[in-house]
Amino acid sequence: MAMVQHGEGLYGWERAKAMLAVALAVLLSVLDYAVANVALPSIAHDLNIASSQSIWVINAYQLASLSMLLPLASLGARIGFARMCRVGIAIFLVASVLCALSHSLLELALARALQGVGGASIMSVAIALIRFIYPKEALGKGLALNGLIIGTGVALGPTVGSLVMSVADWPWIFWINVPLGLFALGMASFALPVTPRSEKAVDLAAICLTVAAFTFTVIGVDDLVHGGLFSALALSGIGMACWLALLRHQRGSSEPVVPVDLLGVPSFLIAFIVGMTGFVASNFFIIAMPFTLETVFQRPVTVTGFLITPWAVGVASMSFLIGRWADRIPAAQLSSLGLAITGCGFALLWMLPNDASNFDIIWRTWLAGSGFGMFQPPNNRVMMLAAPRGREGSASGLVSVARLGGQTLGALLVASVFRFSTHASTLCLLCAMIIAWLGAGLSLGRTLRLGSKR
Question: Which UniProt keywords apply (predicted)?
Answer without folding.
Answer: Cell membrane, Membrane, Transmembrane, Transmembrane helix, Transport
